[in-house]
Amino acid sequence: MSSRHYGLDWLRIGAFGVLILYHIAMAFSPWHWVVTTGHAYTALIAPMAAVTPWRLGLLFAVSGYASATLVARAATPHAFAAERSRRLLVPLAFGMLAIVPLEMWVRVLEGGYPHGYLRFWLLDGWRVGTFYGVEFPSWEHLWFLVYLWTYSMLLAAFVATAGAARRMDRLAAWLSRGNRLLWAPIALMATIRLAALFVVPEGQGLLHDIAGHSQYLPLFALGYLVARRPALWRALHRHAAGAILLALVAGAVVVSVELQYPGDVVPPHLAMAANRAARSVMAWAMVVALFHLADRAFNSDHRWRRPLSRAVFPAYIVHHPVIVLVTWFTLPLALDPWREAALLLAATLLACAAAYGAARAWPGLGMLLGVPAPVAKGGRRPAIC
């Protein structure tokens, strides 16, 4: 477990690139978002619907894989939990104080809030309850860190229990037989999600997001299991073609439902259930296919891999508010969609590069933005997510 998987590093980098493009596209989509450009294109529904079921689940699966390396290197499960808390909760606290208020300010501006950011940050940004139609407090896009920290603590508790290794051996052996690695995770994820579909309201929130946890937690756990049990890699490669076929079929179902019931239109129960089940199928099938691709085609190093991998965390923290703020402040310019999209992409990439550069230049800021301190030549650090 001392060596890293370069292919999954590239997969993580690529997944974050998709995330940036997805959030920029949200400003032009017919779906409700923090703020929109005034241009809404139904042509974006199909590609965005095809990405939605797996884009975040893939990040949790890669994070689970990276966590296996961190657990192996930690002296004890408690040491792993302490290190993950430092790496995740410090940037979360910084983001809640310095980053999230920017987005919340734009949200209340849309509701008619009359004051500038300084007053908002000093007085109004720390409310509890509804303010100008916006619920306070909010994690905004940093909810991913909250979920990842929670799953990491659950992992630490699991590996600390007696017989954890034996249970993983038995599970890995069971999954390796036949087609179980392909259908068993899908059955678990789809069953939990459908069981809660018309019982628990869907929405983000650590304590009540049954729909999210039904997908993200199994994918995180499976990423960890694949890293610790190499036999599962052989099963992944064996089922890659089937996973691609499943992903295509499930993606077609998801896209067709979203096209037939666009925006805030609520589909009938049967269509909604088919959509949610197809999302679970696609989430795991894409992880299998992309892990296969990463291992077979991209498991090699390059001089750009390390800086890009280290830049992902600070870029994740800053990219979302940059898109929101640039969209909001360019609304009066009434830019055409191509210029607006180019401006959003350029501003986001520049902000991400600036955040990473500043984090490298000032170690204290690096700790706040999730960039690990430099290590001696020849040293290795695993991906922090």
Automatic annotation (TrEMBL):
Pfam families: Acyl_transf_3. It comes from the Bacteria. Residues 6-356 form the Acyltransferase domain. Keywords: Membrane, Transmembrane, Transmembrane helix. The chain crosses the membrane at residues 12-34, 54-76, 88-106, 141-160, 181-200, 206-227, 239-257, 277-294, 315-335, 341-359. InterPro entries: Acyl_transf_3_dom (IPR002656), Glucan_succinyl_AcylTrfase (IPR050623). The keyword Repressor does not apply. Coiled coil: none annotated. This is Acyltransferase 3 domain-containing protein. It comes from Sphingomonas hankookensis.
